[in-house]
């Protein structure tokens, strides 16, 4: 059995998955990696972990790591896709992109999946609604051409 420190050192070469990679509510500029039709709304770390376990892939959950594009989104998963001889552990999944697609399909197939909106998103929407809209001030002066 490996200690957590040994797993952390070993997992530095593994592939990293952040939930926003497969979040259909985000844009590609905000971090989504797949097309909206292939994604799911608000994926959770535990859902992704369950999918990886069902695929037979070794993974480590890091709940306190922040997503680089949005510091409010916490959590990532490190996944070991390849053995030391560079062969994939699961022959269906040969790259990170196919892994993301497979995870999204598995999450969609979860029966009675509850879509939970993260609390920081609801707070941001409330602040956005309460923020007054500032209009540009236009001057009533007409510009005249010099004669």
Descriptive notes:
The chain is elongated, with a radius of gyration of 22 Å. It has 147 residues and is an alpha+beta fold. The protein has a three-stranded antiparallel beta sheet with strand order 1-3-2, covered by helices on one side. A hairpin with a 2-residue loop joins β2 (58-67) and β3 (70-80). The N and C termini lie far apart (89 Å). The longest helix is centred in the C-terminal third of the chain and has 13 residues, at 96-108. It has four helices and three strands; from the N terminus they run αβαββαα. Its main location: cytoplasm. One of its GO terms (biological process) is SRP-dependent cotranslational protein targeting to membrane, signal sequence recognition. Residues 138-147 have a biased composition (Basic residues). Keywords: Cytoplasm, Ribonucleoprotein. InterPro entries: Signal_recog_particle_SRP19 (IPR002778).
Q: Count every helix, treating DSSP H or I runs of 4 or more residues as helices.
A: 4
The total of beta strands comes to 3
- Percent range of helical residues: 25-40%
The largest sheet is: 3 strands, antiparallel
Q: What is the molecular shape?
A: elongated
Compressed to H and E, one letter per element, the order equals HEHEEHH
Cα-atom radius of gyration = 22 Å
How far apart lie the N and C ends? 89 Å
Low-confidence stretches: none
Report the average pLDDT across residues.
Answer: 75
Query: What topology, given as strand order, has the largest sheet?
Result: 1-3-2
Estimate the strand proportion. Answer: 15-25%
Q: In terms of structural class, how would the helical and strand content be classed?
A: alpha+beta
Pfam families: SRP19 (PF01922)
Subcellular location: Cytoplasm
InterPro entries: Signal_recog_particle_SRP19
Region (Disordered): 126-147
